[in-house]
Design goal:
286 residues; alpha+beta; Thiol Ester Dehydrase, Chain A; 2 domains; two-stranded antiparallel sheet; 16% helix; HotDog_dom_sf; 3-alpha,7-alpha, 12-alpha-trihydroxy-5-beta-cholest-24-enoyl-CoA hydratase
């Protein structure tokens, strides 16, 4: 069904109420690679019983953590097959450290829909509040829908992936476990692209790929560990564009620059001619 821009942008989506426990946070951060050194106090701080520190990227899975079925892309004015959808970008802002357990209410709205000709880019924003109305976090994201363009909408601005014109200040290796996608899918992302070899082949990949949001979370942790002494509470915001894919079993490199009070980065796959996996990575310290 063609995208109906007016319907989608004016839709009032039902609020979603959800809760999470410290064990959910532990599993999420374990799926990102926390605990790789089980003797390290810094690594164990992500996995402490009852009071693990919480990376802000937990916000990307909190509402759907206990999902057991693949997601759907069906909303007022938007109905797209999952196999046509790629995650394009994700950003999260946290006014205060996320609690290790709690309950919340999420309200999502579509903010822009761009017509790229053969594809569409759909932007949304989610505001998440505690039961007393306190803002917990705000997410902005975009998805790329293949074959859904051509509806006569605005093309949208061009994007730039510029990083400082100098060598990175730091290069951090980021190994991916062979089973990492199978572990991360237990955090609520059951898209078969990351677990089913036949589904991955039908989508044009030689084997299942790692969840983009897993790479996203791993990179946030890598930067936090490298520059912020593994203090998740020191991160006020974080975002990235999904520029390519990562495969379980390979080792990525996080190139990090300190630039005018902010941290920018890119993630590449050295074994694949430094293919870019994440671009426009930016972490805002508190």
């Amino acid at each position: 069904m063609p995208i109906d821009v007016d319907v989608a942008l004016n839709a009032e989506l039902d609020p979603v109420e959800f809760s999470w426990a410290s064990s959910d946070v532990q599993l999420y951060q374990l799926a990102l690679g926390a605990g790789s050194d089980p003797m390290s106090p810094r690594e164990l701080s992500y996995l402490a019983d009852d009071t693990p520190q919480v990376l802000p990227t937990f916000a990307t899975v909190a509402a759907t953590f206990h999902a057991t079925k693949p997601p759907t892309v069906q909303f007022p004015g938007i109905e797209i097959e999952l196999s046509k959808v790629l995650h394009a970008s994700e950003q999260v802002e946290v006014p205060a450290p996320l609690p290790p357990s709690g309950s919340a209410r999420a309200v999502t709205r579509f903010t822009d829909i761009w017509d790229k000709g053969k594809a569409a880019v759909i932007w949304s924003q989610t505001t998440v509040t505690a039961p007393d109305g306190t803002l917990l976090w705000r997410q902005k994201r975009s998805i790329f829908a293949r074959g859904e363009g051509g509806f006569g909408g605005e093309r949208g601005p061009s994007t730039s992936d510029a990083v400082p014109d100098r060598a990175p200040d730091l290069e951090v290796p980021m190994p991916i476990l062979p089973q990492q996608a199978l572990l991360y899918r237990l955090c609520g992302d059951r898209n078969p692209l990351h677990a089913d070899p036949e589904f991955a082949a039908a989508a044009g990949f030689p084997r299942p790929i790692l969840h983009g949001l897993c790479t996203y979370g791993m990179t946030c942790k890598a930067i936090t560990d490298a520059l912020l002494d593994s203090d998740a509470a020191a991160v006020a915001g974080y975002g990235a564009r999904f520029a390519g894919v990562a495969y379980p079993g390979e080792t990525l490199t996080v190139n990090i620059w300190k630039d005018a009070g902010r941290v920018v980065a890119s993630v590449v796959a050295p074994a694949r001619d430094n293919a870019i996996v994440l671009s426009s990575v930016e972490l805002a310290p508190v």
